[in-house]
């Protein structure tokens, strides 16, 4: 396998933005040339709508588009490509489930369980659904080390219909034991629906939906080297068959009469209208790129960088550095959320940007979690395949500049 230091050569942004250290892959990843070239190929060689044309370039676009569905199904070990629904992003995938499934199965007094560490995308839809349907929203807390309280017998009852939780926290980096949690939840209540937000997991580690045992899993293309505007919702085929459509319109229709409409089955039942065709086709190249590296190698590289960065930050800044989340690197993704002295995270991010270091500052769309941590905001540095030890050193030098500048 290639040395990870060489991967930067595949990303044009590093040629166009000089002296650039990108540490915000948790928000969105950079794009390799193979993905960009595939987008250009679609728009320049077979830029036609899919399914609707009997002419050659339309058939070519359709073939490329549907190939992506097969590639995605294989990547996460879905039983069939019919279980792969394309959306705009993981957020839309979660909202689709809340709308099409949640409103169907929830009644007043039923329970939805989520966690305090969720991204707003996997918290607010369930909160609002509970308000709307008179359901009860229960929130699992974390301990001081950033781990979920997995004593599910305390929260799951016969009235619990939905358990929605993240695989990897976008702030703490906590890797939740989804397989064990799912098994425990279904042992307590076999009818519970388990929904996994894997937006921070699928890009960084092997994910096998058959092994995990859940019912739905969502993620986004743009966080795993692919284009923006493409999300994935995986769901068990029997559940997808029973759900009503999220939107109505072209290509999700089988037959339309004046008095009734017959819808297609999944996946097309949930893909009304013209999708992001070129972006879906480009997403296929992102997955192929990751597969050539190997997801075990991706995970190993991120563990190495994350541990090295944590150790370096602690040794250089001591008690002035507060790092949130698990200390055990085996239970932590490539995400480091921290506060530095009394400096505001936004000031830190601005000064780092002066030297070409891109980090995220704020609550990272996880306000309930930050309230639980007792802070308004954190700085977040996150790693991916194009990062190396030099990026860590630049981050450290930038933080030394923060201390010097702000006093």
The proportion of residues in beta strands is 15-25%
Estimate the global geometry from the Cα principal axes: globular
Largest sheet: 7 strands, mixed
Number of domains: 2
**Overall average residue pLDDT:** 97
CATH superfamily membership of the largest domain, which one? Answer: Type I PLP-dependent aspartate aminotransferase-like (Major domain)
Give a count of the beta strands, DSSP E runs of length 2 or more: 15
* Second rung of CATH, namely the architecture of the largest domain: 3-Layer(aba) Sandwich
Strand neighbour order, sheet with most strands: 2-8-7-6-5-3-4
- Report the CATH topology name of the largest domain: Aspartate Aminotransferase, domain 2
User: What's the CATH class label of the largest domain?
Assistant: Alpha Beta
Helix content: 25-40%
The ordered H/E elements are HEHHEHEHEEHEHEEHEEHHEEHEEHEH
Low-confidence stretches: none
| Overall SS class | alpha/beta
Q: Tell me the distance between the termini.
A: 45 Å
The number of helical elements comes to 13
Rg: 22 Å
Blueprint of the fold:
Elements: H1 13-16, E1 21-22, H2 33-45, H3 56-76, E2 84-87, H4 90-105, E3 111-115, H5 124-133, E4 136-140, E5 160-166, H6 178-188, E6 193-197, H7 209-212, E7 216-220, E8 231-235, H8 237-242, E9 253-256, E10 261-263, H9 277-293, H10 295-317, E11 321-324, E12 335-340, H11 345-354, E13 357-358, E14 360-362, H12 367-373, E15 378-382, H13 389-406
Helix pairs in contact: 2-9, 3-9, 4-5, 11-13
Describe the structure in brief:
This protein has 407 residues and is α/β, with parallel strands linked by helices. The protein is 39% helix and 16% strand. The strands form four sheets. It has a seven-stranded mixed beta sheet with strand order 2-8-7-6-5-3-4, with helices on both faces.
